[in-house]
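Re: that chain you flagged

S.,

Sorry for the slow reply, it's been a week of failed gels. I finally had a moment to sit down with the sequence you sent. For the record, here it is as I used it:
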Amino acid sequence: MKSSQFMEKAMDEHTDLLYRIAYYYVKDPYLAEDIVQDVFMKFYHSNYEEKGELRAYLSRMTANACKDYLKSWTYRKLQFTEKILQKEKMIHKDRLVQKEELNLLDMAILSLPLKKREAIVYYYLESLSVKEISVLLEAPESTVKSRIKSGKDLLKQKLVKEEWEVLLHD
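Prediction finished late last night. Pasting the structure tokens below so you have them in one place:
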């Protein structure tokens, strides 16, 4: 068991990162919050010893928890139900142009295949090096580089069609 001060410090420093990781995996903000809470609960009860960077350890725990969820019966059942009922999600948000464009970028990232999405998120949003991503994903560096490049190419294709109002008015 960890001291409450250590846990509070870890939660303060890493919650935002873990939430972003979980959100980009599961594409649901509420589910991402639940996963992050579960990760911190598991971390609290674990026998963690400082061997490396805590950030990487918690990131790996979060990624694994998300992958476990995506393999779960609950998730598959939910996906199946949504496909059968073909629910249309109507989201009306009143946002500034920048927020709308960030939303478009998020959607483009979320539409990427999982492996390419992981590489893009870690490289561009979390500023990890190719080597760090390679260790985190347990994949060769060349594989990580190709995932980043192909993910970036897919994003370009998806975003070329969008009109970026901020860029048009500058």
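What I noticed first: Residues 4 and 153 are 45 Å apart (CA to CA).

Talk soon,
D.
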